[in-house]
Amino acid sequence: MAKILYFSRDYTPHDHRFLTALAKTEHDITYLQLEQGDQTLEERPLPAGIERISWAGGRGAVHFDDIPGLLPSLQDVIRRVKPDLIHAGPIQRSAYLVALAGFHPLVSMSWGYDLIHDASQNRDWEEATRFTLDHSAVMVGDCDTIRGLAISYGMANDRIVTFPWGIDLDQFTPDNNMTTADHRTLTLLSTRGWEPIYGVDVIARAFVRATSASPDLRLKMLGGGSQKELLLQIFEEGSVSEKVHFPGQISQNELPSLYHSADLYISASHSDGTSISLLEALACGRPAIVSDIPGNREWVAPGVQGWLFPDGDDEALAQAILGAVEQRERLPEMGLKARYLAETRADWSVNFQNLLHAYQLALHPTKMPQ
Questions:
Q1: Strand order in the sheet with 28-33
Q2: What is the pLDDT of residues 135-166, one digit of tens each?
Q3: Largest distance between two CA atoms of the chain
C-alpha cells in the first residue's frame, strides 16, 4: 500500500472517475485541487474514503504566473501528508508545481491540451513543460500523439505509460434501435463545450450548409459556453433554428440516452488527445464524423467507424454529413464496428490498470524496462 496524493487542476467528471477507481484500491488516497472554476464541473461528491486537503489553492482561477506563489503552501501539504507518490496534472499546472517543489516520485498526467496546445504557447510554457517532464518519474498519456509530443519535449520513451482512459462499457451501451437508421430524419449530436477550441462554430455553419440540401436533418447541441451568441446567430441567419435542440447541461446518467437519441456523433474539435465523448458515442454504437486531427485518427477509420473531415473546413464537414445521409443504410453496420472498437480498446475497467502500473514504475524505478 502507498500513500498517494492526487493533485488535479479542478474537480471534473474525469477526476471523479479516477478517484472512484483509486478509492477501491489498496492505496491511501488524498485529493488536492489547484483551482475552482466559475462553473461546477462535477456535482457528485468525492468518493467515500477520499480526503480533500485544505491549502492556499482551490479557491478560484489560477494563472501560470500564480503558480510560484502557491509553492510554499504545497510544500506544507507535502510535509503534512507525507505522500509516497504524487499523481499530478495537467503538465504545466499541477505537475509543474510539484516539480518546482522538488518532490519525488512524481507521476505527471497529461490531459491532452497541455501538450497539444499549451506547451507551444510561449517560451515560459515550453520551459515549464520540459522542466516538469525532466522531473517526472513517469508520465501518463492517453494516446500515441501525446507520447510523441512528450518525447519531443525530452521525456524518455521508457518512462511513458500510454493508455486511453476509456469509459464504462456497462453504462454506455448500444440501444435496441441501433439497427433502425433508415427513418427519414437523421439526427446529429454534438456534446463538446461551446468554446473556440472545440470548433462548434464549424458545426453550426456546416449544419446550415447541409440542411439546405437535406432539410430533414436535425442537430442536438449539448452544453454551453462563450460562443452561445455566435451559434444562435449562425442558426438564425441560416433559418435552421427550429431544427436545432439545446439539451443544456445534463448528468452523467442521462448521457447514454442522449447518444441513443441521435444517429451520428459529430465533433469539430481543433485539438484532442483521446476524446472521452467520442469513446462514449462509439460505445453506444454511434458512428462519428470528426475532425481529421491525430487524436481522432487513432479511433475513427474512414468508412469503418465513421468519417474524418479537414480540421476547420465547414464545407467539407457539410459534405461529410450529406455523404452519411446518402449512406444511411450503412450506419447500423458502422455502429456495430464502433461498439466493437470500444469494447476492445476503451474498457475503463481494463485500461485503469495501466495507471496502477505507472505507480509501480514510479515507486520501484529499478524495475522499469530498459
A1: 51-52, 28-33, 3-8, 85-89, 106-109, 138-141, 160-162
A2: 999 999 999 999 999 999 999 999 999 999 99
A3: 64
pTM value?
0.87
In the numeric block, the cell 503538465 is attached to 91
The DSSP string of 162-184 is E----B-TTTS---TTTT---SS
**CA of 352: how far to CAs of 22, 33, 124, 222, 276, in Å?**
9, 21, 32, 27, 14
| List of domains in the chain | 3-166+348-367 (3.40.50.2000), 186-345 (3.40.50.2000)
The Cα–Cα gap between 286 and 289 comes to 10
Q: Check residue 370 and give its pLDDT.
A: 39
- CA separation, residue 22 to residues 50, 105, 216 (Å): 9, 18, 46
Helices (H) and strands (E) in the chain — how many of each? 15, 13
The answer to whether 126 and 118 are in contact (CB under 8 A) is no
Q: How many CA atoms lie within 13 A of 369 on its CB side?
A: 8
The amino acid that residue 204 corresponds to is A
Residue 96: per-residue pLDDT: 98
pLDDT digits (tens, 9 = 90+) for 53-88: 999 999 899 999 999 999 999 999 999 999 999 999
251: left (phi over 0), alpha (psi -120 to 50) or beta: beta
Per-residue pLDDT, 367 = 55
